[in-house]
Write a structure and sequence with these properties.
Layout lengths: L25 E9 L2 E4 L6 H7 L6 H4 L3 E4 L4 H16 L8 E5 L7 H15 L6 E5 L6 H14 L5 E8 L17 E8 L7 E11 L12 H15 L8 E3 L5 H10 L10 H6 L6 H11 L8 E8 L2 E8 L9
Parallel strand pairs: 4-5, 4-6, 9-10
Antiparallel strand pairs: 1-7, 1-8, 2-3, 6-7, 8-11, 10-11
Helix pairs in contact: 3-4
Amino acid sequence: MSLTHDLHGAAPGPRPGDQPARPAVHLSAPAYVLGEQEADHSTIPGLAERARQFGMPPKAQLWGWGSIRRTARGLEDLAVESARATLAGAGVEPSSVDCLILCSTRFPGGPRTHGKFVETVMTGAGLGAGTAFTGITLNRCTNLLVAVRTAQALVAAGQYRRVLVVTTDRVSDESVRMENFALFSDGAASCLVGAEPLGEDAYEIVAGASAQDPGSLDWSNEISADLARTVNERILADAGMKPGDVHGVLHPNLFKPVVVLKERQAGFTKDQLFLDNITRFGHCFAADPLINLVDRAAAGGVRPEGHYLLASSVPGVRVGVLLRKPATAHGEF
């Protein structure tokens, strides 16, 4: 009798403590679109007064105030343009997408209008009647990463093979384009989460985690470095890594002092952060981590076998998704 088979030729059962291998899940063809109107931060109505209300000295270089992007287009148009770019980048037909996860901090209208909203996005992206859909909104600017983790779970469970994730947002009231943590731009971002890598720009999803404190969810609370450390500990323990092993952190484009302080408190160094887009166009709601991944890669800042953390925080919540860039072209492992 061999060491690996019993008398009947069957493989022995799992040993205590054995963990079943998790199926590989990939994030492919990230893409984004920004509002078509570029404007200097000085054009934001009441910016100086808002800064005084927040107790912020009006020093653009300190905060990273630069340009913002506005749109006259609807959320559906932004979502469709980004979704089409993702499908083209992945080199797949829209009919091959099993599920759409659509995110926004404010879906327009209510139950009477949401059906048409979804129909417009699905039709514009070329998705068929066989594509299921769901919406994510209550997670605020962590919506996108919550959707990515949801898509990962659906693919790993075998419920769907390809999930298109799209987030779309715009400022509807110019008086709140500035908040005490960021200047907001309008835009959308998207990616495919699936069982195989697709296209030239693909990543393996290595690990993910979230942490929350329901008592701190109110908008008036600060972002928590403790929650960020908890998420980092869970992700890095799962991946067998240390904070220094992460080659880049793709975080929200909040004001520079806020980002640097909170992410350093979470255990990262300034060199691991990607701060360029804060001045270029500020905070695009939940889309920032994916936008920053695309732009970091375009700038040559993503290397083969490198690990990159998509991360987002709002008061009371932190979400992270760790990616690995494959060593070979076309997303092959």
